[in-house]
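From the shared-data thread, chain only:
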Amino acid sequence: MMRRSSLRLFGTRPWTCCCAAVVFALASTAQEPHQGLATSSPDAIHGKIQVDSWNIAAGALKAMMPAFTAAYPNVDVAINMSGAQLQARFMLSLVAGVGAPDVSQLQLQEVPRYSCTGRLTDLTRIAAKYRDAFPENVWKDCMHEGRVYAIPWDIGPCAVFYKRDLFEKYGVDVNAIQTWDDYIAVGERILEASGGKTKMLFYPTGFQEILFEMLLRQSGGQVFDDSGRIAVNSSESIAVLEVLRRFVKTGISANTQYWSQPFFASFNTESVATYPMAVWFGGFIRDYAPDKSGKWGIFPLPALNPGGLRTSSYGGSALVIPDQCAQKDAAWGFIEFALCRRDSQLGHYRSFDLFPAMTTVYDDPFFDEAVEYFGGQQVRRLFTKDVKRIPAMNRTKDWVETSSYLRQSLGHWAGEGMGDPQAFLRTLEKRLARRLDRKLSPLSLSLREMAPGDGLN
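Structure, as tokens:
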């Protein structure tokens, strides 16, 4: 899930280095896995718990409370709506061993650096019955060394949001856009026909890691292999960088920062025609362009190759229980009710636009309803397509640091003129290997230029 108030996911992280050091310290003193939670009937569970969450998600949990209280009459829940440095504060409380909430929300992509600390409650046994209700590519983010430490909440399947009136104005058939080659060609047509007035997309060269990750995941590429070794120099990464380079070289992209005033203002103008983004982005459009109902549409993410996967994923969140929690039965009862119950997941989506990670709810008629704002499209159904086919990303405990370094490196690559992608990836791998103290993967193309055994475990 993307937080629509703080936008921290795409902002700077002044606490990243501090938290990285904390993760290392905790990992070195990690506890033995918790043996699991006792199962009790809801009315037999007593306790008072605090749940930390951010704005929209916290609102969804508060809206759920009457139903939860009816099912768990002896559990008092205080929901703390706080997005400001929530995850950093949570990490510090894990270090101290005190002060953590009983349940905390985390960005899905950041769960691995918390689960590796050994300071989260092991949910493996109690959560096993729900594993098949969630995509494997999402469940993997909630695991560490074969154990489960989080339950997925919402996910971010991707597509392209577009302005129907602009496509009609320039005679664009949205169904003709099947690949990124098609997409770029349409962008060139619109750019020329508009006299340079209308760009195809925003592509801020200082935030390239967003689209890089989205397309890399779509292609099945990885930054790390299954063993945590660096594998970003690959044919998939090269293909992605070629697409990103063409966004800039063809002139179809606007180099304007995401979440800036011009970015939001563009929702109501002809300056940009499309926005390749995750499902949660639709909330921003409705918030900032409330008078444009019916003038927006959505089409599947273009494939990298003809017939290829036409979706990806970016964003999402999960709930965890710190091991220091004294009310584990109550905390698990809350998570189970909120995330593993059909009515709860549908309620979060209906009222708060949190796209459910729980795929067993996708058969609900709600997903087939026409959405007036997006021209009567069945956009909810569109986003469910191929969710289970999205490749999992191999995220490590230093994923956040890696993502930050990718942003810097890709920005430097753009500033240097976006030269040979493979040369850039070779340099990136070497620097990541030194920075993270990780070996290169046998899958890396970089090893073809190395002496035998160099860079391997």
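The first helix runs from residue 16 to 28.
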